[in-house]
Write a structure and sequence with these properties.
The model has no long low-confidence stretch (mean pLDDT 82). The protein has 289 residues and is an alpha+beta fold. It starts with 9 loop residues before the first strand and ends in a 16-residue tail after the last helix. The protein has helices at residues 12-36, 39-56, 132-137, 142-158, 177-192, 211-250, 258-273; strands spanning 10-11, 59-62, 66-72, 75-80, 84-87, 96-98, 102-105, 109-112, 118-129, 197-209. Strands 7, 8, 9 and 10 form a four-stranded antiparallel sheet that branches. The relative contact order is 0.09. It folds into three domains: 10-97, no CATH class; 102-209, 2-Layer Sandwich (Tetrahydropterin Synthase, Chain A); 214-273.
Length: 289
């Protein structure tokens, strides 16, 4: 496996001045040699001018958060990471690799969750290249590799968890966003390490039931919410009834037997738990008649 290493380079400013001086010297030398009729020096002057022109091809610029991978006749010779103006071997190829932080949002994928319900899910991944050699030589196209492997990881993750938690403590896609994001980042990183890519963040950007079951699942969520609200109403109503009976008994306001207590409890529960306003009915007779 090829490992990234620093490339050998010279200061571009120094080489530019040197090449400029040689570029001016060569024609002058050529003219003077031609005037003297010295064929050897004419040849040397022409060669110097050609070498100067070829060496000028080695001047290259490295921008911030960018790297240049140097390839000489098919062999990797090193990577330029330091920004600036440099001179390298003029016959080397110098493909650029961006080291900037980038993000990628996957398409909305349709997949079955852990309970078999079809859902739509998409994710956003923040990533950057950390190893230029692996990014260029270990995979065919590292940008496409990031896209394909991210979508594969999202599909695998979504099929391993339910959309909603059905039991207490169960990790679900909708309710445990932090745990799911951490798991997603780990899984995507495992797939992208061979491409020299570091995953900085991964999170779900879209999550919903598939259209064909969205209506049914919405009614289910509404029913669950109504049941939970009713439980709270009943708990509160029972507490209020208990408090009322305790206060009446403690202050000797009225003495109630079991039948009257049952009637009072029934009436109070109807008033407290009803969805609509209740209308009072005044009983002018006896409870027993």
């Amino acid at each position: 496996m090829i490992r990234e290493k620093s490339a050998t380079s010279l200061s571009g400013g120094f080489m530019l001045l040197l090449l400029f001086a040689l570029f001016v010297l060569a024609p002058t030398w050529l003219v003077r040699a031609a005037m003297r009729g010295d064929g050897l020096q004419v040849t040397e002057a022409v060669l110097l001018w050609l070498v100067t022109m070829v060496c000028a091809l080695g001047l290259t610029v490295v921008n911030p958060n960018e790297a240049r991978v140097l390839l000489l006749f098919g062999s990797y010779t090193g990577t330029l990471r330091q920004p600036g103006f440099w001179w390298v071997h003029p016959f080397s190829r110098r493909p650029k690799v961006s080291l900037r932080v980038r993000n990628f949002e996957s398409a909305r994928l349709k997949v079955n969750d852990n309970t078999g319900n079809p859902i739509e899910i998409a994710a956003v991944v923040v990533w950057r290249v950390v190893d230029t050699v692996e990014a260029l030589f270990e995979v065919d196209d590292y940008k496409n590799f990031v896209r394909v492997q991210t979508e594969a990881a999202v599909r695998n993750l979504a099929s391993g968890y339910p959309y909603d938690a059905h039991t207490e403590g169960e990790i679900a896609l909708r309710s445990h966003t932090a745990e799911i994001a951490a798991r997603m980042k780990t899984e995507i990183q495992e797939r992208l390490t061979k491409a020299g890519v570091d995953v900085l963040e991964a999170r779900i950007s879209h999550l919903a039931y598939a259209p064909e079951i969205a209506g049914a699942m919405l009614r289910r969520q509404q029913a669950t919410a109504i049941v939970a609200a009713r439980q709270k109403f009943v708990e509160g109503a029972v507490g209020m009834v208990e408090m009322a009976l305790e206060q009446l008994s403690k202050k000797n306001v009225v003495t109630l037997d079991d039948e009257r207590k049952a009637a009072m409890v029934s009436n109070m529960l109807v008033v407290l738990c009803s969805d609509q306003h209740t209308q009072p009915v005044v009983n002018t007779g006896s409870l027993y008649h």
